[in-house]
Design a protein that fits this description.
about 260 residues, mainly alpha
Length: about 260
Amino acid sequence: MKINSIYLHALRNNGHFQFMTDVSTLLKTLPAEVTAKFKSLLDTFAAAIAEEDLALKKIMKSVLTSRINEADVKRDNVFRGMVDYLKSMKNHFLEAVRISAQNVGNTTDSYGNVTKLSHTDETAALTNLIKDLQTKHAEDVITLGLEKWLPELNKLNKAVEDMLMSRVFEASVRPTEDVKEVRRRTDEAYKNITVCLEAMSMIETPENITAIETMIAALNNDITRYSNSIAIRKGQAAAKKEDDDMPDEEEIPDETPEEQP
């Protein structure tokens, strides 16, 4: 039984990985007696998928770094806003408020301008500062109305901390090869398996042939689904290009002939 072709190069990285994962899942539906006969090919395929998974994480690192930078800007804005607020409270008409502002300001100033620190150092500094303000200056915080500032700053700081930890974990498993090369090896392993399956679907026992054909039929359905997705994307890209190539309305020449006197 023939396995339908699919233009693997047209699949985007995540789609390519998901397709190969689907294939791996379908292969597991085959009887052990069948898979035992091409175990080395299956092992190579599984290893290639694992490599591709790690290679994709390398791409995600740059995305995560961008998110960390965005979250850092948000927490810096809140911190600066709180500092500016404290400065204004030092000029409050109530003495109690001025004293509280001075107390909290002294503690905040002792940490320096944390926004100039590295992401990791700033995270640690803000964690300690927030803890100091919530414990040592609990009454001052209430007097100044900082009850909403500190939870917000803490939330944003925690978000940066979580993303930093995720990046550390991903760095520990980061591959050295690019996705294109890893995908090439996965494609080669996949093609070797398809050739093997097509051959086995003709020479195996009737029971095994039925199992193989059932698996191939499911794979062909999956291939159709991914191929349709590729076709739709190409169609949308072509339509967009056609729209981009069209001249603006005022640029379209008027081909109506002038009236003759």
